Amino acid sequence: MDSELSPQWRKTFYSLWIGCFITGMGFSMTMPFVSLFINELGNFSKFQLNFYSGLAFGATFVSQAIVSPLWGSLADQKGRKLMCMRASGVMACTIFITGLSQSAWMIIGMRFLQGAFSGYINNAAALIAGETPHSKSGWAMSAISTAGIAGNLVGPLLGGALSGSFGYRIPFFITGFLMFCVFLSTTFLVKERHFVPIKKEKMRPIREVMADIPNLKLIFVTFFTTLIVMASSMSISPIISLYVRQLMHNHGNIAFVAGIVAATPGLGTLIAASKVGHTMDRIGPERVLRIGLITAFILFIPMTFTHSPWSLAFWRFLLGIANAALMPAAQTVLTLNVPTEAFGRVFSINQSFQAGGAVFGSLLGSVISGLSSYPMVFAITGLTLLLNFILVVIVQPKKANSN
Questions:
Q1: Which of 136, 141, 162, 241 is buried most deeply by CB count within 10 Å?
Q2: How many whole angstroms separate alpha carbon 277 and alpha carbon 138?
Q3: CB 297 within 8 A of CB 389
Q4: pLDDT at 4 over 90
Q5: How many CA atoms lie within 13 A of 293 on its CB side?
Q6: What is 209-403's CATH number, 2.60.120.10, 1.10.287.620, 3.50.50.60, 1.20.1250.20?
């Protein structure tokens, strides 16, 4: 770290990093087992179980996409720390109550409510963006993104062990308790020193703020990039275990191998995140974003034609390295091109696109694999990344060419 980053900044950063880690871990510790949890609450047909599981998964992202801009406006008035406290406090309650559920609809309702009040990672990123010198923005955004990814890696392993030993309710109780700890640490350890509150009557309309941005097309393409990057992840995730089972011809320890294949992108991202962040500060986030998109597209080609789960794991590990240049680069583009007064609203709009990408990606993967084949999901997903790359090149700032 640099002398530009004070001890208080570091305390704030590490508190938020741990908060993002626990938020990511809590999501992945509970979500993979929701369908099994629902199955214990009644005698459901296969269609009913899939339907309720899909609703429970999608409810969070639907409510998140709807409500995020409203929270973003409040963040610009009251501060991002308060939004992190709001998200962690409500999530602690809703996740704990989910563990007490007696019906599928109660789980779905809690998941919808959780999505409506979520946004810890997004607001933590906005807070750090406002507190960090621009010369360190790339590193800081990459590091914060790494926290959620690391949590997503640990979550399924911990959730699986806890569910297997103590039942499916226990991971929800533990996650709820941990989120309450995040609420306390955010309340007492995080300081937001550079935030200037904006009274509602003095707040410039978001359209007016956006109109002052020199390269507005870049901002909209960045929103689209967030949607596509999230969709590219979610289109693959639901079908990975099924594809691995097909590649293994339904023989061997499919769950174990599928777990490895699912985890390898996160491992690649963890390894590459810090290096990519420093590179972003040196050559600019726009160039890093372009490199990441075209690399990800190229890596989807061999994944489409692979015949071995281990080769699939290898290519997905490399994809994880490319992914380290995608979401953090998009967030850094926003940080460097949007006025500080609008960080909350703009980052929340970005979160809505992220939630929309999760829903779109899940539908894309399900529909394509149902109508065609699993490899076709990889092919179509790769083409969406190529389209995204072309759009980024078209709207790139002129100064990026001189880097």
A1: 141
A2: 5
A3: yes
A4: no
A5: 28
A6: 1.20.1250.20
